């Protein structure tokens, strides 16, 4: 019985280890696929560079790379500027919306305050009438 329990325990542990190894294997397969893709991209870049290298000298390649870098930097700066402008517009619209809502709530608070004041006046008037009626009842 003890031996059977020990074997079951060992079997369970080994099963967990197998499951862990299968998971690691799957992860490694994904990593290998990613590395193959990166390798293919690198080979394509090398091939393109080799094709360009045959027709251009190093100075021309450097100049082209610098021009492309400057162009990309200009594009990025332009996109950042446009994004910033868009964000500022959205912020201004949001601020305007908040101001409108604040105004609406202030008007509502003012209306409620006026209603409370009016009701308080009516309450005082009604209380005076009640006192007057009570006095009349007392006289009667």
Automatic annotation (TrEMBL):
Residues 79-140 form the Golgin subfamily A conserved domain. Residues 9-20 have a biased composition (Polar residues). This is GOGA2 protein. Pfam families: GOLGA2L5. It comes from the Eukaryota. Residues 1-20 are annotated as: Disordered. GO terms for cellular component: cis-Golgi network; Golgi cis cisterna; Golgi cisterna membrane. The lineage of its organism: Eukaryota, Metazoa, Chordata, Craniata, Vertebrata. Keywords: Coiled coil.
């Amino acid at each position: 019985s003890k031996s059977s329990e020990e074997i079951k325990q060992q079997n369970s542990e080994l099963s967990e280890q197998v499951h862990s190894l299968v998971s690691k294997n799957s992860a490694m397969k994904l990593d290998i696929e990613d590395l193959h893709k990166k390798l293919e991209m690198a080979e394509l870049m090398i091939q393109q560079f080799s094709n360009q290298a045959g027709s251009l000298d190093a100075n021309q390649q450097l100049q082209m790379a610098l021009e492309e870098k400057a162009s990309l930097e200009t594009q990025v700066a332009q996109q950042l500027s446009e994004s910033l402008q868009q964000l500022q517009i959205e912020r201004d619209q949001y601020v305007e919306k908040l101001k409108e809502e604040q105004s609406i709530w202030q008007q509502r608070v003012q209306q409620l305050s006026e209603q409370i004041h009016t009701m308080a006046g009516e309450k005082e008037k009604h209380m005076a009438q009640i006192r007057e009626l009570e006095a009349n009842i007392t006289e009667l």
